Amino acid sequence: MADESNEKLSREHRPEVIRERLTKPVKENLASDMVLGGIDGCVTTFAVVSGVVGAGFSPIVALVLGFANLLADGFSMAVSNYESIKTQGEFIKSLRDQEQEHIKKIPEGEKEEIRQIFKNKGFSGETLEKIVDTISADQQLWIDTMLIEEHGVQKTHRNPVKAAIATFTSFVLVGSVPLIPFMISGLEQSGQFTFSACLAALMFFSIGALKSRLFAKPVFLAGISTLLTGGVAASLAFLVGYVLREIFGIVAM
């Protein structure tokens, strides 16, 4: 297995393969948006379910509030993600415009910034000056270098529309799963809640496990960690519903 892995790495790092890979545009990674949307969607709906059951309301209330929160919160989260990524893109563009203006007005000062940056990396003498001359000869490369090295941001930004769609889709699909048992009229409410809890637990664990596979992390530990996060949120919602029922004397419906 190790020999196969090393052979694969060697093939992937041949000059012609590297050259081809670097000419392709960087693929956008939507995994974080989908994981975030899925976890939040499942937490949102199962927290509503837990609160409703804890308060002693009927299953239809869980369905109504669950779906209402699912769509409203999913849309809100998608819009928030869209605005966040869009703002980041606008911030990067403002930095790019700023660096372009500085290069135009004070090129020697900007060259000195490049010189100091690479001097701090250990370059000196003729090699350092060649680096400065090479970078400053290409304005696009110059600006990109300043964005990464001085401001610590990437030269590209993500597509906010794709991120928003991924977030909303994952939120709704995963978040609707805990509501399925409440559509089954033949089950008692306790059975519906137990079934819903099992489905929610499965979703939490699956999302954590999927995340671990994407980023080469231990599957079981990642699944349990996500499961505990969702479990704590649901437990708090159930506790709040139960306490408020006792305080206000809510009669089970």
UniProtKB/TrEMBL annotation:
InterPro entries: Ccc1_fam. GO terms for biological process: intracellular manganese ion homeostasis. It comes from the Bacteria. One of its GO terms (cellular component) is endomembrane system. Keywords: Membrane, Transmembrane, Transmembrane helix. It is a multi-pass membrane protein. The chain crosses the membrane at residues 46-72, 163-184, 190-210, 219-244. Its main location: membrane. The keyword Transmembrane applies. The keyword Methyltransferase does not apply. Pfam families: VIT1. It is found in: Endomembrane system. GO terms for molecular function: manganese ion transmembrane transporter activity. This is Membrane protein. The lineage of its organism: Bacteria, Pseudomonadati, Pseudomonadota, Gammaproteobacteria, Vibrionales.
